[in-house]
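Q: What residues go here?
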């Protein structure tokens, strides 16, 4: 199964594919493309990449850490919003140079998606506006229980508002991470973790 996936991707994109794949009963369940460069960045070939993954009901995790996904965010959001990755539960977009416009697109996609349980947006360039839109998307999304917005550019007031909305959306069994954001007076050390009583 791994060889077939690797060959299919290589055939479409034309590169040597060396991600770490987690296998359960010969089914690919997690793509780990952390720091893997697909013809420069995955964003440059994202349409092909998501077409290959489309409809795959076994992929529950997608690690796109440090891929510069700003280029391919439209394809990712389309896949999320239109059930193209129907079983995806975990999405890691750590350090992808994502800004507010990308966060707004992700918020719209997450509003239409009810499979994502964990979203890691740590170490991007998202401020109060982008983070606020993601939090507001929780009014429509019932599955997200872990959101990491640490090391972005969210101010102290933004952090407090996000924490308030997170709590009001009954995410009492999930985790919200807001540590090391660029607050009004430099770095803030604000972190929340809600767990069941």
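A:
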């Amino acid at each position: 199964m791994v060889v077939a996936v690797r060959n299919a991707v290589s055939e479409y994109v034309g590169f040597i594919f060396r991600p770490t794949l987690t296998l359960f009963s010969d089914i690919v369940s997690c793509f780990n493309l952390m720091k893997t460069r697909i013809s420069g960045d995955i964003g440059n070939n994202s349409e092909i990449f998501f077409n290959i993954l489309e409809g795959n009901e076994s992929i529950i995790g997608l690690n796109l850490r440090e891929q510069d996904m700003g280029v391919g965010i439209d394809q990712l959001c389309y896949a999320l919003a239109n059930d193209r990755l129907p079983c995806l539960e975990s999405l890691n977009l750590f350090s992808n140079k994502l800004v507010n416009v990308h966060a707004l697109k992700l918020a719209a996609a997450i509003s239409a998606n009810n499979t994502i349980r964990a979203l890691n947006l740590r170490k991007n360039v998202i401020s109060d506006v982008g983070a606020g839109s993601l939090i507001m998307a929780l009014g429509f999304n019932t599955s997200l229980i872990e959101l990491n917005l640490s090391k972005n550019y969210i101010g102290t007031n933004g952090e407090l508002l996000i924490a308030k909305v997170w709590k009001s959306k009954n995410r009492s069994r999930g985790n919200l991470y807001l540590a090391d954001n660029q607050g009004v007076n430099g770095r803030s050390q604000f972190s929340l973790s809600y767990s069941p009583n």
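A: Context that may help when evaluating the design: The helical segments are 2-13, 46-53, 73-81, 100-111, 128-136, 156-168. The two ends are 42 Å apart (CA to CA).
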